[in-house]
Specification:
The protein is mainly alpha-helical. The protein has five helices and no strands. The chain has helices spanning 3-8, 14-39, 45-63, 65-76, 79-91.
Length: 93
């Protein structure tokens, strides 16, 4: 593989990673807001928010696993992986 081929095919797009993280964060914040609204029917605001934080952690793992896997896959393709691939090619592997 020549230098021009390596530079013309980026395996890592920072903007894709930023979009994926922002989307996942917005989903989790939305779940927090919904749970807070539900808990506010029965509890004061501060206590409802505390329950919503605790409740959204396991629920986000169940409901948003596809988005989380997308973020993790993009992070795995990040600059560290590209650097390791380049070092392996320089070693002749």
């Amino acid at each position: 593989m020549s230098d021009s081929e390596v530079s013309s095919t980026p395996a890592y797009q920072r903007s894709d990673l930023v979009k994926a993280i922002a989307g996942y964060s917005l989903l989790r914040f939305g779940l927090f807001a919904v749970l807070t609204g539900i808990f506010m029917i029965f509890l004061p605001l501060v206590i409802a928010m505390a329950f919503a934080v605790v409740g959204q952690l396991p629920l986000s793992m169940l409901l948003f696993s596809a988005q989380k896997q997308k973020v993790l896959a993009l992070m795995a393709r990040g600059p560290g992986a590209e650097r390791a691939k380049l070092r392996a090619s320089l070693r002749g592997e």
